[in-house]
Amino acid sequence: MVFDSKFENGRVVTPDGVQTDVSIGVSDGTIAAVGEPAELGSADRVIDLDGQYLLPGVIDCHVHVREPGYEHKEDWSTATAAAAAGGVTTLIAMPNTDPMIDSPETIEQVFEIADGSAHVDFQSYAVLTSDNYDQVEPLAEAGVAGFKVFLGTTFGEIEPPDDGELYAAMQDAAAAKRRIGFHEENDEILKHFEAKFKAEGHNDPIAHSHSRPVVAEAEAVSRIMLLADHAECPVHMFHLSSGTGAELVVRGKEDGVNVTAETCPHYLWFTEEVMNEKGNVARVQPPIRNADERERLWETGIYGGGVDCIATDHAPHTDEEKNIGDPFDDTWKSISGFVGLESEVGAMATFASEGRISLEQWAYMHSTRPAQIWGLYPQKGSLQVGTDADFTIVDPDTEWVAKKEDLRSKSKTTPFNDEEFVGKPTMTVVRGAVTYEDGEIQVEEGFGEVVLAGDTTSNAKPRGGPGN
Ligand code: DOR
Ligand code: ZN
Predict the structure, then answer these.
(1) How far away, in angstroms, is 94 Cα from ligand 2 center?
(2) Which atom of ligand 1 is nearest to the CA of 284?
């Protein structure tokens, strides 16, 4: 058989190991063979990876694409171009758009927009509020990967359902085999301290961080897990920021709650000191925590199984909205969130180069596990024969400095600007097509396709430990 393409001489990374003695043959967009190079047969295009890593395509399950409604911040074309350039092959979009994604009609609308303009594959969440909490089944049938509830108010100011409505929605989600993910911050605690700090004139950037204390996350994690336990509903903690939160998730898993969690590169890379160094550029909610919380997030989250997956919370805003003409100006005039799609692979590759995370665990947390959590596995997140040929190719030796002017997102604001990375995404492959290579996007808008989502209740044990 002559393959469409063949990838050879790479270091093929999966959760099960790193192989240097295999080549991958691709035909019709899927993986046709994985085997010994000498036995694999020929191909129309042979891609010599020259020792680079080949990971199952990275999946970012937390991306604020902004379209429809906030196209001045980002749109499907720019977000997915950033994804391709960043080594991301599939993204899952957040529903705090305008209109918000909360009905079969708006789901259809967003899939239609994405279908016409995406450069990589995609999925979306639907939001649950008091107005649609009883629509879990039709929303699931409309094809979303899962649901989002905003417990802590953030951009879009979308209020959560009340506890009765939420519990009922959890029962319906359990029946529909869909997972509900949360912005897990206790809103009353946030509002109290924001008002207090404003009244007292605490306006420096770190005041924003301190107005959203760890207990706000801890309370929300605990309450969600209690409700989920009773409703037997699979739940997910988006953007877990603290060791305290990770410790609670571990306990929930031990108690049999079907809970999964993600953290973001910025919580693993920075401490809250970044607020004093880079100001409101790094303003995000939940905020970046102190060194002790970060350390315990590594220990209990990454090595102890409290965190399942890595995602960015890519949250573009304009520089005016973030008010970063002077990044140390009044934090209450700034908005939270920053872009991440083009730095996440570099950040994780850097952690791998430092031996802080094994290559196997990186592939698991950045590809396989998010695919399992959101019902995209094994079509996405694996290198099994017959599944989509999605690859993230990384040159592990390139040392580079992230520069905002290189970004493809409309927003250039990120605390990773000027940070030093070891390991760079060089080629991105989606369904066998090279979507990014030689610094250029290689596919047209509209190449990306929606990924059908199945059962999202998977609760396989996450793996932990730098060596596994
Ligand atoms: O900082 C944030 N920005 N946190 C969120 O949860 C939402 C996001 C946004 O949409 O801008
Ligand atoms: Zn978010």
Answers:
(1) 7
(2) 1
